[in-house]
Design a protein that fits this description.
Rossmann fold; about 120 residues; disordered N terminus; about 15% strand
Length: about 120
C-alpha cells in the first residue's frame, strides 16, 4: 500500500499539511500513519458502516477509505469540510464518484465567487 502516492495523487503536500482532521474509515498500515502524524489529527472509525463513517465524516477534511467502506451520496452531502477522498488499493466501486465530482465543482464555484448553475 502506498498512502504517500495516494495522497499526492489527489492534492499537493502543502494542502495535506493544511488539513485539520483525516478520517480513516478502517485502520491502515502503521508506516502510513507515521506519514500523516504531526500534520493532522487522525480519527479512526471504530467500524466501516455507513452510519459510523458518515457521522465522523461530517467534521473531516480528508477521508482515507478502504474496500469495506462505501461512500454514498448521503454521506458526501453531509461532509461539509471534506477536501480530499483517498482510496487505498485500486478501483472506486465503493465511491459515488458522480456526487463527489458535483460537490467538488460546487465547492470551487463558492470559492471563486461564481454563481452555481
Amino acid at each position: 500500500m502506498c498512502v504517500n502516492c495516494t495522497i499526492e495523487r489527489f492534492t499537493s503536500w502543502s494542502e495535506v499539511h493544511s488539513l485539520n482532521t483525516i478520517l480513516l474509515s478502517e485502520p491502515i498500515e502503521g508506516s502510513a500513519i507515521k506519514l500523516i502524524e504531526g500534520n493532522a489529527q487522525i480519527a479512526v472509525s471504530p467500524d466501516p458502516s455507513d452510519a459510523t463513517v458518515g457521522g465522523l465524516l461530517q467534521e473531516a477534511d480528508a477521508l482515507i477509505l478502504r474496500t469495506a467502506t462505501r461512500l454514498t451520496r448521503e454521506m458526501l452531502q453531509k461532509a461539509r469540510c471534506l477536501k480530499v477522498i483517498s482510496r487505498t488499493g485500486g478501483g472506486l466501486n465503493n465511491v459515488d464518484v458522480e456526487v463527489a465530482w458535483l460537490l467538488k465543482k460546487r465547492s470551487q464555484q463558492k470559492t471563486s465567487g461564481s454563481a452555481p448553475r
